[in-house]
Amino acid sequence: MNKGFRQSQSTLHTWSGLLLGWVLFLVFLCGTIAFWREGLNRYMRPELARVEQPMTVLAGAQAFLQTKAPDAKSWSITMPNTRIPGSQVFWQPQPKEGEEPTRGRRGRGDTRALIGEDGQVVEARETRGGEFFYRFHFDLYYMPVIWARWLVGAAAMMMLVAILSGIVTHKKIFRDFFTLRRQKGQRSWLDGHNASAVLALPFHLMITYTGLVTLMAMLMPWAILANYTDRDKLSDALFPSSAEVERAGQPTPLVKLTSLVLDAERRLGVPAGFIQVSEPGDASARVTVNAASSATLSSRTASVTYNGTNGALVWQSPPSGPAATTSGVMIGLHAGRFADITLRWIYFLCGAAGTLMVASGLVLWTVKRREKLPDPSRPHLGFHIVERLNVAVIGGFPFAIACMFWANRLLPVAMKDRADWEVHTLFIGWGLALVFVLVRRPALSWVALLGATGVLLAALPFYNLLRFNQNLLTPLRTGDLLPAGVDISLLIIAAAFVAVARRVASYKTGQAKRRSRRHADPQTGLMLEPAE
Amino acid sequence: MIWIAFFCTLAAFLFLGLSTAQHYQRRFGTRPRADRQRLLRLIAWLLLASSLVSAFAARGPVFGPVIWIGLVIFAAASSFLFLNFIAPSKERKS
Question: What angle do CA A194, A199, A202 make, to 5 degrees?
Fold first, then answer.
């Protein structure tokens, strides 16, 4: 009975891990990169300097908006800090008669601008920066968002099933916690897969479960449907805000936002993150200041609203209820926005371990089955598909990301739809990788793709050094370590890719049967490589 | 305070790792006696408990547990890499 149960869990683990495993790999990889979302936003816009005086930027943003969109319906201003490069401002024009107000999350190019560290508009290259990885990890790309979320939600559920059934299947993982048998073929693979899973198990469970929580209203709408008939009421309960105002039609100057933000920060007790002004320049103006999400564990931040003409406090968000707090904390844990640099690295390394866990699990499927193939030189179709998909996704997608980083540097700054073309480059690179994988043997395409990724990533810091004439010591002098830190991390990651590619290549000369098993072996080494 | 928590978790996982027969033999040349194993585990758990206390003291009841779990993961991974990939000095010489 016991054996039968574990056997069934093992089957469940294998297939729940495999079926959407490739989607999971993409989600895990991009989600991991997205922990550096703000850092990448800046890294991919090398024109931007670090913000030392957030209030200068805010005053500049207000001055800019007052000349650019004095009678807009609303303004939105993100507060910069040393981590967030500049202030992104959006404005929404007054809706025309009988026209629905436009509500685009991305905002159109003509209603947004970026204010730099000196309070002036910066003409930075158009890029989606780290935002791309953040959105891609739950919205994917080139497909309706709602389908993507269902797909990612299904993959996350399978992940949860795979983790839980994996704990049952490999019940020895806790006893063999510190065990790694090296150079032992399938055994080493399994140890590597287990190590990447069990060492960061609290993280994997947390990130998968809370990831599902972020999609809960879509995946399990019944609780909401049963309690709320009106979507507006739900929205009020979840995201309380002050009442909307009618435009009075009397031009009245807006108070200084900097003084309001200082007051709000004192009241909230934490730095401000986001400012919204409705009906600016009108007697009915309202200014809402939201707390920065980096300051609290819960992602549902508190806010205060002021009268925009005299600066009087009008409204303060009530403390949120237990259910809203629970989900807010879970989403906060998932996104890790509160994390300082140390904890952020731990998040990143755990995410990397999770990515390796998915990757090694996918490769393990082929490793296990290759031995049992009747004729290893002519595998059956299913084996063929899994093997090639593994190379195309695990080898191909990092290569595509490297292509995107290069596109960010090389595409002309004045190019039309530049930000979109950066993303297109990623998918063109991935498409090329896929074609390559289809026409060449996996043993060769593994080496080629991993090696190419390593070379592309390693060359990027040197290009930056030459192109932007950076002095190697400047970051140390100014204390602005971010761009250099990304460059150094890229070099380390590139070294890992090259090392893995070399190990794969060196096994190619071995026996044909062993080769395929080993070629993936260094994959687990990816995490371990720097420690060797 | 957070550094105390960090070193406690690191030491705890090194002790836990060394309490396994395989790693004990590799480092000390003999198989561990049962009472030695128990002692190592006991020290490890005490260290883990004190690291939790110091994490609470350092970061408070909201962020304390979060950073403690992060430290535990980091310490577990570091000791795993150390025990498996850094050979004892004897092995290195031979």
Answer: 115
